[in-house]
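Show me any protein, keeping tokens residue-aligned.
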Amino acid sequence: MPHPRLARRVPRPADLAPFLRMRSASGSLAERRVATAHTIADLRRLARVRTPAGPFHYVDGGAEEEVSMRRARQAFADIVFHPGILRDVHDVDTTTSVLGGTSALPFGFGPTGGTRMMHAAGEQAVARVAARTGIPYALSTVGTTTIADFAAASGSGRRWFQMYLLADRDRSLHMLAEAERRGFDALIVTVDVPTGGNRLRDLRYGMSYPPQLTPRTFLDASWRVGWWFDLLTTEPYRFTYEEQADAGSGITTLTGFYDDRVTFDDLAWMREAWSGPIVIKGIQTFDDASRAADAGADGIVLSNHGGRQLDRTAPPLHLLPTVAARHGASMEVMLDTGVRTGADVVAAIAAGASFVLVGRAYLYGLMAGGEAGVERAAHILRTEVERTMRLLGVRSIAELGPEHVTLLTRTQPVAVEIVAE
């Protein structure tokens, strides 16, 4: 039996009108640019185009063969969600409490170094976005703004201070006193840097503090006019930990920064110097999680420094359920490394984390579009958190639990027997 033919007619101009509607261009150029990004991966692609290779790969890369970094991402990719159906999820509450305060979302912006090298707006732009979003943001010891300027930019927002245990204890004490005076309400002590990791991308792409012009870096950066214009027309970089140095001494370096003699005993003097909560960041074993708890830490961050220190370490997500079960009742068990989506955040909370820190995710936004890019990154992550919660059938962060997620592990521990010859 033949199929009936379509009844055709000549289209009228009014029929075409709905297809010819153009979106009106609104907002700044940066806002319009990042509006085309629908994922953090989209922001990464924009960032790569706009940022010279050195700064971009400083953010994007890890140590040595980058196995740790890839494993961390794979751990989230291997997540299995278990959604509940026929729940009323019209109103979803993403707020949570962390370190004695409230966060509008179950994640915050973690500390990152050299942030103004990614975009001249730097930490102050990130701080403004964090305050508007209602989430904490941690200023790094090797940030590129002063403690006072960071506090001013964050306004009434929650601000945390990240500290490396410097060999110069007087400078450390001065920073702690200044941070407390400026209203920082938590201290994050990063403990996984007795020395710098072997970050091969930095060596291969000529990453340095400050960026150095060589024939290769000049050719790479020459067409990124906006980045160079911002660099040359704003104040030179200065590290947060050197804000008391001679203002006329120019740009400084990280020479002599790391202290490889630090032990758990050194946390005692920090407890005396800081009255608020103290979080130890860089925990990578069950034993060190227990030692941190015994040392009186108010919280820990399971972290391998974004895969930028020792390569071939375990994904923090794989450590999370056991550590949270052992210590979650007595201290905050947080997590970073490998987080790129709001679904990753939700999975970590369901697996036992009390809070999640993101780093590269907002830095890609910063590189892609300055403050507008960070705003876009926060919007993307918030939307993904809310959507994932609805699809799981939960209405609040407190409802998330291990019944919602299974962590699949592709690698199993291998016991190595050492035989004496």
